[in-house]
Design a protein that fits this description.
The structure holds 2 protein chains of 2 kinds. Chain A contains 13 helices and no strands. In chain A, helix 5 packs antiparallel against helix 10 and helix 9 runs antiparallel to helix 10. Chain A is 72% helix and 0% strand. Chain A is mostly helical. Chain B is mainly α. Chain B folds into 2 domains: 62 residues, no CATH class; 263 residues, MetI-like fold (Orthogonal Bundle), CATH 1.10.3720. Chain B has 13 helices and no strands. The two termini of chain B are 41 Å apart. The chains are: A mainly alpha, B mainly alpha. At the A-B interface, helix 3, helix 5, helix 6, helix 7 and helix 8 of A face helix 3, helix 5, helix 6, helix 7 and helix 8 of B. Chain B: It is a multi-pass membrane protein. Chain B: One of its GO terms (biological process) is phosphate ion transport. Chain B: GO terms for molecular function: phosphate transmembrane transporter activity.
């Protein structure tokens, strides 16, 4: 169509005509072009604005945290540390975080994976399955502090008010973790091709064995990745642990008795201790010691989370089922 | 069906098991049945857990509802001897919603921009890196955001807030003088916006990527510029996705605790002044701050506020799911 309108004006010289047509087609009027440019610039700005806080945050955590981040920091607790003493570490907090998170994983992984199996293998078409799917979605949005309150209320029922121990934190975290595990496992199970199941049935394998030996084995890499991402999500939760596990300065490896320190709570605790007034010149004293410890603990926490994320990605890349390729 | 087989079994004991087995395909016995019960039980357990969360909160909060407001005021230290439960809850709900909505107002346009950038502007390799960066933002624990917000961001934005209150002070929102350590709601909103940015971006990006290629190409073929293509093809397609992503972000922002605790200087008023300290407080942060000093009745009061938060986030989340479900049939976007 454009060629016919351009035809008469070019008067037979085809190459020149082509150029005018092309020029005509390519020029957009100035207003529209300006708006297009403006929006493009805005997109780039949005991108920059998003990256800015991340860069600033990572840079601050690393630069301020690296100073105290050493072997002594990682292998000592806060027992007997007071004032501006140049001492103390996060060993007890790392131990607590590992125990509490492990407990949460032990509770929520079987429940989450089994529920996902129900949704994918037994559920379709059932009203119960639809209800579970819906409420798992809703459960994803439970505020972490509400999960903490729930665990507190649950254990107060059995142990009376003012109770604090590690398992409570595990229960609180598993409320947050179960929906994430269910969702990711569900997605992975759906990816398993139906032909595999049918082949197993054709060989006379019972359904449960088919699920355990064929379906789960095919999806195991994806499920592991999902679980690790779920763990990395809850490992940084602070508020529910503050309510349930409490704070402690000493090492406590028993999740069934006594308060425990966890890394995120440690960061908060050190931060809220604030600056130390150093009045006595004869005593070694660092005014900002609490903030320094908070930054180093934050660095430890971020490293743990990053490591979990990285391993999760590696697992899914290395052990990905061959069928999808 | 079962009625007809029942008498048969009485007369011919050998036949009915065979028909039953044929009907279900695979025998539902022994390990098979056990496994089915186990998985179904896990699904039911999740429902029970959610009901238990609501039930236990209600049960623990009950004394706060039933106790008279005078008795409550004298026994709970942080009610400061005045007001009923509702008078205490009101400003908290107000502060929570205000902070979350502000955060959403900041984060949503940015998130849409980033999502469009990754889906339609950036070269593929850069987009991949960007996706990873967004995931990284999501993985950082909230307490670290709080630490950074209180020690780095607050001093950084204080002069900006001061300038804003000087220039725009006639708007009640920005009434000055801006508080000097900037432990104010606007700082909190900025931090919350950074925290909910990843989830909104991730969801909207997924929706934008699902835009039918034919729609985009048709728009471009009609001579649309890239922005016009996005406005006419991508954005209408992704509208419900954007709304639901924003609601998800809102749910997150409503329940965020530590960043608010570490930054905001709390107060219990219905104030829109974003740059003044000691004006607002959120439910979650209030629980985290007040629970150490709470006696039994105080804990009940906090549980009641927690229940309110639970209900608010629940409603927001259900609304977002509903929007997605309602629009799914038309748009194909999830």
């Amino acid at each position: 169509m454009a060629a016919t309108t351009a035809g008469p004006s070019s008067g037979g010289a085809r190459p020149a005509g082509h150029d005018t047509v092309r020029a005509l087609l390519r020029t957009v009027d100035t207003k529209r072009r300006r708006r297009d440019r403006t929006m493009t610039v805005l997109m780039y700005v949005a991108f920059g604005v998003a990256v800015l806080p991340l860069v600033s945050l990572l840079w601050t955590v690393v630069s301020r945290g690296i100073g105290r981040f050493d072997v002594a920091f990682l292998t000592h607790s806060m027992r007997g540390v007071f004032g501006g003493m140049d001492a103390g570490g996060v060993y007890h907090a790392i131990l607590g975080t590992v125990i509490v998170t492990l407990g949460a994983a032990i509770i929520s992984v079987p429940i989450g994976v089994l529920a996902a199996i129900y949704l994918v293998e037994y559920g379709p078409g059932h009203r119960l399955a639809r209800a579970v799917t819906f409420f798992v979605d809703v459960m994803t949005g439970i505020p972490s502090i509400v999960a903490g309150l729930f665990a507190y209320a649950l254990f107060v029922l059995f142990f009376g008010p003012g109770v604090h121990f590690g398992l409570m934190g595990s229960v609180a975290l598993s409320v947050l973790m179960v929906p994430v595990v269910v969702r990711s496992t569900e997605e992975m199970l759906k990816l398993v091709p139906n032909e595999l199941r049918e082949a197993a049935y054709a060989l006379g394998v019972p359904k449960w064995l088919t699920i355990v030996k064929v379906v789960l084995r095919t999806a195991v890499a994806g499920i592991t990745t999902g679980i690790m991402l779920a763990v990395s999500r809850v490992v940084g939760e602070t508020a529910p642990l503050l309510l349930t596990v409490g704070v402690a300065d000493s090492i406590n490896g028993n999740p069934f008795e006594g308060r425990m320190m966890t890394l995120p709570v440690y960061v908060y605790r050190q931060f809220s201790s604030g600056l130390v007034p150093c009045n006595n010149p004869n005593v070694a004293c660092i005014p900002t010691i609490n903030y320094d410890r908070a930054w180093s603990a934050a660095l430890t926490l971020i490293l743990i989370v990053m490591l979990l994320n990285l391993v999760a990605r590696l697992v899914s890349r290395i052990f990905a089922p061959k069928l999808r390729g | 069906m079962t009625i007809t087989t029942e008498p048969q079994r009485a007369t011919q004991p050998a036949k009915p098991p065979a028909t039953r087995r044929r009907r279900s395909g695979v025998a539902d016995r022994g390990a098979n049945r056990l496994f089915r019960y186990l998985t179904t039980g896990s699904g039911v357990l999740i429902l029970i857990a959610l009901a238990a969360v609501a039930g236990f909160l209600l049960w623990q909060a009950w004394p706060a509802f039933t106790t008279g407001s005078d008795e409550l005021a004298t026994k709970v230290s942080f009610l400061q001897g005045e007001g009923s439960l509702l008078a205490y809850l009101g400003p908290l709900v107000f502060g929570t919603v205000l902070a979350a909505v502000l955060a959403l107002a900041i984060a949503t346009p940015l998130a849409i921009g980033i999502a469009l950038f990754t889906s339609h502007y950036a070269p593929r390799r850069l987009a991949q890196v960007l996706g990873y960066v967004v995931d990284l933002l999501a993985a950082i624990p909230s307490v670290v955001y709080g630490l950074w917000g209180a020690l780095v961001l607050a001093p950084l934005v204080q002069p900006i807030w001061g300038w804003v209150s000087d220039v725009l002070g006639w708007i009640p929102l920005f009434a000055g003088p801006a508080a000097d350590p900037a432990r104010v709601l606007l700082t909190v909103a900025v931090i919350l916006a950074v925290m909910i940015l990843p989830i909104i971006t991730a969801v909207t990006r997924e929706v934008f990527l699902q835009t039918p290629k034919l729609h985009e190409e048709a728009a471009l073929a009609l001579g649309a510029t890239r922005w016009e293509m996005i406005r006419t093809a991508v954005l209408p397609f992704g509208r419900s996705g954007i709304v639901s992503a924003a609601m998800l972000g809102l749910g997150r922002a409503l329940g965020e605790t530590m960043a608010v605790v570490m930054i905001l200087s709390p107060g219990l008023t219905y104030s829109f002044a974003l740059l003044l300290a000691g004006k607002q407080q959120t439910i979650a942060a209030n629980i985290a701050l007040k629970y150490p000093e709470a006696n039994e009745l105080g804990m009940s009061t906090l549980m009641a506020t927690g229940l309110a938060l639970f209900v608010i986030t629940m409603v927001v989340n259900m609304l977002s799911r509903w929007i997605v479900a309602r629009r799914k049939d038309f748009s194909g976007a999830n």
